[in-house]
Amino acid sequence: MTRHRIAASILSADFARLGEEARQVADAGADWIHFDVMDNHYVPNLTAGPMVCAALRKYSELPLDVHLMVRPVDQIAIEFAKAGAHIISFHPEASEHIDRTLALIHAHGCKAGLAFNPATPLHALDHVMERLDLILIMSVNPGFGGQAFIPEALNKLRAARARIDAYTQRTGREIRLEIDGGVNADNIAAIATAGADTFVAGSAIFRQPDYRAAIQAMRSALADCAVNAQ
Ligand code: DX5
Ligand code: ZN
């Protein structure tokens, strides 16, 4: 039984047919829908807000993994919780009070995550592990799909995995470790070996003609790496 999850990032989908795209990627075997929220302020791009999230909710039963690249965070996080998000992640630099924002997300019935840019150290984790359901490691600078994976992210994954394992051993509670940016069937095994259990993939799915084949290629690579690890 694998803990691996593939989160299809609709950033690379056809935004004019978003509902249909979400349905198709769910039918093709994705585990989660990853919803990137960009505000043209915290990151140099602009995507979609809670209204689009609520509309999308009707097209797929999959967990909605909302990745907030916005500042400020708190009010929009609440709006996404109301719009049907299951998991809401934000960047520590974007919140004035990280502990408060995490508590706020939980108070509105969602799981909460912290997202780390390539050059952001993991220090923000020091005092909030008990508030976290997910740690998201960015392997590209946030803002755009289709960028190349930054290899240094593998070191950060190993460091985050060590923190999670120590925490889980102490408390029995698990925290997901998600990687976001430049993931594809060629590098996913190395990423899993470094400790990730949840894999965001945008262009590796939506810029392929056959979503099912694209997801299957990543799953096969993950299965091979699980066998090799034994
Ligand atoms: C980038 C977003 C990613 C993006 C990944 O800022 O957070 O979720 O969609 O796209 P790919 O998989 O194409 O790198
Ligand atoms: Zn993302």
From TrEMBL:
GO cellular component: cytoplasm
Key words of the record: Calvin cycle, Carbohydrate metabolism, Cobalt, Isomerase, Manganese, Metal-binding, Zinc
Reaction(s) catalysed by this chain's protein: D-ribulose 5-phosphate = D-xylulose 5-phosphate
Listed EC numbers: 5.1.3.1
Positions of a divalent metal cation binding: 34, 36, 67, 180
Manner of cofactor binding, per the entry note: Binds 1 divalent metal cation per subunit.
Pathway(s): Carbohydrate degradation
CDD domains tied to this protein: RPE
Active site: 36 (proton acceptor), 180 (proton donor)
GO biological process: pentose catabolic process; pentose-phosphate shunt; reductive pentose-phosphate cycle
Protein's UniProt keywords contain Metal-binding: yes
GO molecular function: D-ribulose-phosphate 3-epimerase activity; metal ion binding
Gene3D superfamilies in the cross-refs: Aldolase class I (3.20.20.70)
Ligand binding (substrate): 9, 67, 143-146, 180-182, 202-203
Superkingdom as given in the UniProt entry: Bacteria
InterPro entries: Aldolase_TIM, Ribul_P_3_epim, Ribul_P_3_epim-like, RibuloseP-bd_barrel
Co-factor(s): Co(2+); Zn(2+); Mn(2+); Fe(2+)
PROSITE patterns for the chain: RIBUL_P_3_EPIMER_1, RIBUL_P_3_EPIMER_2
Job description of the protein: Catalyzes the reversible epimerization of D-ribulose 5-phosphate to D-xylulose 5-phosphate.
Family: Belongs to the ribulose-phosphate 3-epimerase family.
Record protein name field: Ribulose-phosphate 3-epimerase
The species this protein was found in: Candidatus Glomeribacter gigasporarum BEG34
